Amino acid sequence: MALFISGLGTSAAAPQIVLFLVREMGAPLHVAGLYYLTSIAAPVAGFMVGRYSDRTGIRLGLFRICALLGFVGWAAIAQSNALWMPFLISAAILSLAGAATSQVFTAVHDELSRQPGANESVVGIIRMALTAGWIVGPVLGAWLAAQCGLRAMIWMTAICWLLQIIPLGTLSVPPARKPTTQDTPGQQSPGREIEMVPLLAFTGLFVLVYAGEPIKYGFLLLYMEETLKLEPAVRGAVIGIQPFIELMIMPLSVVIARKVGTLRLMWLAAGLGICANLCFAFWASAAGMFAGQILMGGVWGVFMVLGIIVAQRLLPGAVATASAIFMSSTALSSALGGVAGGLGVDALGLPHVFVLPAVFAGVAAVGLIAMDKAGMIRD
């Protein structure tokens, strides 16, 4: 329930924030687009919160603090009267607030580690709730913005950040084990830094896979409308089929991973990403768009569940740090995808810009194969 509400509020504002900056704050379009670059601060903030969580063992307490920061940040944006304010608020406050979700997943990891025979499929169910929030949120946000205005819509986002605290109540989940001096992230040794290399490598590969999403959402609708001349209902169905496929695959991904191997399933999913983007680039029809989106549903049905599990396994002595680094990596993906898409569409045009995310996914697949062959995690 907490993560559904979180996804609902965040995704309601995400597609509307540029419009808010242009209409309410008077920002030029090219300046408003730079707002997304403020999310680059999220990985640093997430690392700091995760490191503190591993040092102290506080999980849900930090979740509540981050959620309160989210409420304060979005409420401040809703009342902003100067263009610089949303940029500063996002970089300084919302970057810290974004660590709330990673603390929930860390608490779930700690709880599962204490339960005999605990099933990691629980992670899949919780990830489905977050995804469901991201499906409903944009629709609700667009309706509320049309009916009540953009500032009211941002107030709804702020309230959702506050409401996500309620389902977990006063629950407290102690860490799986007491941190010791030698593995406390606050007192890192060269050995600890070396241990983080596989996690950072895996996160980098995830960034490459996810970088295709901002390219797709930036240009796929435009391509379907202006070049393919697809009807609005068809365009909506193309966009909507991906999360539907995701939700179908998510509860099965952990089960399948046990049979074929976690990293093997993930590099196979990256391969689906290659095929999906090649469909967008070279299959110029509604069928090609549906095929690409169905394949992308397979990609994210696997990565969105197994990604956090793999990250925590790669740094078992500091699962909060691992969770925070992994969960905040989407900010880097958005920046990479935005830059690559902007430059690529000028150089390659539509639809061949989608060759770029196919290449990114191919590099990620090779990297995941190498990690699999090296036996970096045990299934």
Write the layout of secondary structure elements.
Blueprint: H1 2-13, H2 17-23, H3 29-33, H4 41-56, H5 60-78, H6 84-97, H7 100-114, H8 121-148, H9 150-163, H10 190-210, H11 212-226, H12 232-260, H13 262-282, H14 286-314, H15 319-327, H16 329-348, H17 355-373
Helix pairs in contact: 1-8, 1-9, 4-6, 4-15, 5-6, 5-7, 5-9, 7-15, 8-9, 8-12, 8-14, 10-14, 10-16, 10-17, 11-16, 12-13, 12-14, 13-14, 13-17, 14-15
Would you mind describing this structure in some detail?
It is a single chain. Helix 1 (2-13) crosses helix 8 (121-148) and helix 5 runs antiparallel to helix 9 (150-163). Mean pLDDT is 87; it is low at 179-188. Helices cover 77% and strands 0% of the residues. With 379 residues, it is mainly alpha-helical. The longest helix has 29 residues, at 232-260. It has helices spanning 2-13, 17-23, 29-33, 41-56, 60-78, 84-97, 100-114, 121-148, 150-163, 190-210, 212-226, 232-260, 262-282, 286-314, 319-327, 329-348, 355-373. The two termini are 29 Å apart.
Any idea what the shape is?
globular
**Approximate helicity band:** over 70%
Mean pLDDT: 87
For the sheet with most strands, the description reads: none
Q: What is the rounded distance between the termini?
A: 29 Å
Count of extended strands: 0
Tell me the Rg in angstroms.
20 Å
Q: Enumerate the spans where pLDDT stays under 50 for 5 or more consecutive residues.
A: 179-188
How many helical stretches?
17
SS strand fraction: under 5%
Structural class: mainly alpha
Helix-strand sequence: HHHHHHHHHHHHHHHHH
